[in-house]
């Protein structure tokens, strides 16, 4: 993330492969009659994948919480996290463009409840 040229090269190599893999998975799921598929990716908007989606959901959380989670999960320093985040669209902009926003500012159970409620809403919408 500290070398913009290397990151751009990596993205040029990886993104087409990721898109092809996701397309194959979505095709298989459609053939099996799946009406709702949820895909998680940090760079949906940055690479234009949002245009291929029926609905976009953005999960937001306070910056300090996100930093603490990444430090714990990935063992990254604050500087490494900030470097990664600098390559992403600001969460506020993603939220403004999303169809739905889930605010992750409570417990894990609270988040699960919010996600489950939205999932049920999306399932109902897909049937109407």
Tag the structure with descriptive keywords.
128 residues; mainly alpha; Rossmann fold; two-stranded parallel sheet; 5 helices; 59% helix; globular
Structure description:
By secondary structure, the chain is mainly alpha-helical. The protein has one domain (4-127): 3-Layer(aba) Sandwich (Rossmann fold). The chain is 59% helix and 6% strand. The protein contains 5 helices and 2 strands, in the order H-E-H-H-H-E-H. It has helices at residues 4-31, 63-74, 78-85, 91-97, 108-127, and strands at 57-60, 100-103. Strands 1-2 form a two-stranded parallel ribbon. The longest helix has 28 residues, at 4-31. It is globular. The N and C termini lie far apart (44 Å). The model has no long low-confidence stretch (mean pLDDT 89).
So, CATH architecture? 3-Layer(aba) Sandwich
Q: Give the count of helical stretches.
A: 5
- Give the strand tally: 2
Global morphology? globular
Low-confidence stretches: none
CATH class: Alpha Beta
What is the rounded Rg? Answer: 16 Å
Structural class based on helices, strands and sheet pairing: mainly alpha
Task: Assess the beta-strand content as a share of residues.
Answer: 5-15%
Number of domains: 1
> What's the rounded overall pLDDT mean?
89
Can you give the helix content as a percent range? 55-70%
Distance between the termini: 44 Å
CATH homologous superfamily title: P-loop containing nucleotide triphosphate hydrolases
Order of helices and strands: HEHHHEH
- Described by its quaternary structure, the protein is single chain
Main beta-sheet strand count, sense and barrel state: 2 strands, parallel
CATH topology assignment? Rossmann fold
For the biggest β-sheet, the strand order reads 1-2
